[in-house]
Amino acid sequence: MGAKRGASLRKGPHIGRGPCRALVAFVAAVVAVVAALAGCAGGGGSSTGASGPTSVVPSTSVVPSATASVSSTTASAPSTKAPPAAPSVIPATTQAPSPQGPVVAEMSIPSIGVKDLDIVPYEGTTDDPAGTRIQDRGVAASPHGERGGVGPGQIGNYLVTAHRLSAGGPLRELPSVEVGDEVHVTAEATVYTYEIVETRTTSFRSIRSLAEQRAAVPGEPGKKPTKAMITLSTCATPEDDAAGNFWRDAQGNPEHRIDKIGVLTSTRPA
């Protein structure tokens, strides 16, 4: 009996080892499941279960906001966006910052020795009585208004007339001016440079011819101007007389005028 009991006691621990292992395995499995659940809750910041909300990760100091990260990167990185295309503009040398309204100006034509010839504006038309009176003073006249031209540097036709023979003949050599020659007009601290591009003849006995001379675009009545242009005009008295044409208007001017047409090419401070 004692021998059997001793045998039974020796077998006890051996027999109970299996259930203990099973219990340990079960507990380990439960711990693993709990740990897994805790890991899932940590990925989302917090989890609400039967036992209440569980805070896993501080919401502001540990995990930076994705939006804040993107904004910080954008602010610190140099911009790779191409700069906007520069607006198309006319260079300053060809723009015409012209004075407001007609002004007294001075004109120089280097190719024929004209220097600082005064140009006096008046309201009217080329070589009308008011214009002729100005020319009789030995200076140039520039008509403006509805039937005249524009001011120096302005878009349109800047008309300038002066005597060729009388009153000192300031434009006596105008017929010698050639295409490509320059005309400099100084007004209100700005020098406007025109380049001669054409020679025309105007008849004061032709309404059509006068309209072409005085048009905003010389030679093209009714056309809208897009450039600043100049018309230099003087009488063709020697040529008319040589042809036997002794017609004169009320101011004593002959029929024909010799006109030199120029286009503004640059401006600069005086």
What is Rg? 49 Å
CATH topology of the largest domain: Sortase, Chain: A
Shape: globular
- The count of strands amounts to 10
The proportion of residues in beta strands is: 25-35%
- CATH homologous superfamily (4th level) name of the largest domain: Sortase
Q: Give the low-confidence spans.
A: 1-20, 33-80, 84-96
Task: Compile the SSE list and pairings.
Elements lengths: L1 H43 L1 E4 L2 E4 L10 H11 L28 E5 L4 E10 L5 H7 L4 E5 L11 E6 L20 E6 L2 E14 L3 H8 L13 E8 L1 H6 L13 E14 L1
Parallel strand pairs: 4-5, 6-9
Antiparallel strand pairs: 1-2, 3-4, 3-7, 7-8, 8-10, 9-10
Descriptive overview:
- The protein has 5 helices and 10 strands, in the order αββαββαββββαβαβ.
- It folds into 2 domains: 36 residues; 165 residues, Sortase, Chain: A, CATH 2.40.260.10.
- The N terminus is likely disordered.
- The strands form 2 sheets. It has an 8-stranded mixed beta sheet.
- Helix 3 links the parallel strand 4 and strand 5.
- It starts with a helix and ends with a strand.
- With 270 residues, it is an alpha+beta fold.
Short description:
The protein is α+β, with helices and mostly antiparallel strands and 270 residues long. It contains five helices and ten strands, in the order H-E-E-H-E-E-H-E-E-E-E-H-E-H-E. Strands 5-4-3-7-8-10-9-6 form an eight-stranded mixed beta sheet. A two-stranded antiparallel ribbon has the order 1-2.
